[in-house]
């Protein structure tokens, strides 16, 4: 069965973006970026891969799920961020948006869609964001990979939105980088 992995950059205070969705303070240079290109290449948008002359390798993921705001954050750069993945964008308000053929824009229940993907053939499913979608999919998340950045936003979009309902994950690995980023990898307890 395929796993759903929530792989995301987060601040020390648990924010994945600022109050208006901004994420430009998250560092995109440093020694942790080498790790991203080496170990998590499938999560790099096409424009990033092209800029450094790399291609996605399909080792970790072949599908990505994200909310509309996460998808829309990259529209200035491209309308097809991950053509190497099957892309599913959840929205209730933007179903009439014009998206490329490789993107499925849906208002389907995220849990139902993810369960169907997990039961199907493939490598893995990446939950790209955002926090509202992560909150809706919390019971389906098998792994958390948090790139914890040495920043405090003070306000912004949380890693998870939803009701208070504690869940346990087990730390499998924690890797610090000279950039100050620490990558924590968890599995569901």
From TrEMBL:
Superkingdom to which the source organism belongs: Bacteria
One Pfam family named in its UniProt record: RibD_C
SUPFAM superfamilies: Dihydrofolate reductase-like
InterPro entries xrefs: DHFR-like_dom_sf, RibDG_C, Riboflavin_Biosynth_HTPR
Domain Bacterial bifunctional deaminase-reductase C-terminal stretches: 4-182
Official protein name in the record: Dihydrofolate reductase
Organism annotation: Microbacterium wangchenii
């Amino acid at each position: 069965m395929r796993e759903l992995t929530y792989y995301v950059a987060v601040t020390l205070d648990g924010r994945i973006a600022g109050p208006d969705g901004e994420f430009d303070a998250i560092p995109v240079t440093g020694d942790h970026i080498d790790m991203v290109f080496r170990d998590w290449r499938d999560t790099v948008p096409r424009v990033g891969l092209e800029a450094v002359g790399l291609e996605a390798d399909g080792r970790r993921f072949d599908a990505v799920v994200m909310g509309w705001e996460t998808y829309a954050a990259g529209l200035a750069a491209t309308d097809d961020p991950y053509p190497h993945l099957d892309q599913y964008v959840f929205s209730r308000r933007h179903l009439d948006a014009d998206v490329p053929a490789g993107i499925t824009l849906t208002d389907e229940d995220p849990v139902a869609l993810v369960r169907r993907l997990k039961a199907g053939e493939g490598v893995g499913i990446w939950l790209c964001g955002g926090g509202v979608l992560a909150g809706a999919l919390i019971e389906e998340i098998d792994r958390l990979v948090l790139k914890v950045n040495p920043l405090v936003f003070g306000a912004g979009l949380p890693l998870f939105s939803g009701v208070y309902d504690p869940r346990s994950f087990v730390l499998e690995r924690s890797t610090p980088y000279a950039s100050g980023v620490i990558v924590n990898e968890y599995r569901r307890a």
